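### Sample
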Amino acid sequence: ARSASPGSPPALNGSFLLSPLGGLMCAQAVLGLLVWSLIAATTYHLHAAYGWVMFVALFFWILTLLFFVTYLLQLHQKFYMVPWSLVLMIYNAVATVLYLTAFVTCAAAVQPTSWRQWDYNRRAAASFFACVTMITYGVSTFFSFRAWKGLGSNAATSQVTDH
């Protein structure tokens, strides 16, 4: 894939989809979609705890899609003055922590004696997928930290890929 310069039109970066960052972002989008759609399919409005879970899931799902499109279309190279590796590391770290709180909240609010069995099943599944989503954000934080510190590359490759 060719590198996007500040004046060129956006170009689709197919190799991004095969990278660890691209794969993790795809997984986060799918898993985040599962979390908020499973919660949305229940009577979540009757329980305040699920409002927090919905907020976290929807907020990070939307932001993950925005980051995904930014990297897929190589728009991050057009805004080269932004320290993207640092921004992505902070984003993933915050997402990990907030998904941890959403997972704990969701799991603690599941009531096995619910009078609506399908609500119990969906909420339990949402708890599981919130945990898996949290793990994917944690792994992304690790890879983002390595990219931010420049681990796994040398000075020549980091100079070529930064701009």
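DSSP finds six helices and no strands in the chain. This sample (Plasmolipin) is used throughout the tutorial notebook.
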